[in-house]
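hey so u asked for the seq, here:
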Amino acid sequence: MSTVTVTEPDIQAGQTLCGGQAEYSVLEFIGEGCFGQVARCQNLQTKEAVAVKILKKGPGLILDTEKEVTILKVLSVLNPDATNLVKFFEQFIHMGRTCLAFEMLQTNLYDLLSHRDYESMFLNEIRPIAKQLFVALDALNTLGILHTDIKPDNIMVINELDQALRVKLIDFGEAIPASKVKPGMELQPLGYKAPEVALGLNITEAIDVWGVGCVLAFLFLADNLFPVNCDY
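ran it, structure tokens below
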């Protein structure tokens, strides 16, 4: 008996995504990963640029999406501009694909250093970034949320051309309530993993502070503080 492979609908540039709050015209695809694709879109009502995360199907991916949306709804009580967190607009289904609409941000810290030919940043550039990230962590802490995936790729720059960089923390796909954290859980990317996570000890919101520290070192050294391809 032959099996039939069902492929996911192909969403292309030029199409219109129909959300519950607005319609979004797909301008171009700007990112891709195991989760799916990220498209730069235009809100047809406001004409503003929007980033839409178009997710793949699959039982595991559906659970991950539900977890991320749950966290985003918890964070919705916060002012995203005052707390330096990405602004989430809505979740909707288009052609059977789950889509998440966020504000459009410019570039991440990894790409920013890449554009600068990996030249170290000055302390007067790093300090305001540090302050903004700690404001974001403080906001998450008030809600009992751990990000657990802090790295240069997940910190977006709003105004690359300005001297005082404005940044926002993005990607809450790996975020978890502090009440659900247990010793021995696999959390944080290699090179940004806190010692207590690596050693299977008790985990608190402090692991995100460690992650931010590693990011600040990355900006100052123009290189990862610890290897990103080896647990040791």
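DSSP finds six helices and eleven strands in the chain. Residues 1-7 have pLDDT under 50 and may be disordered.
lmk if thats what u needed
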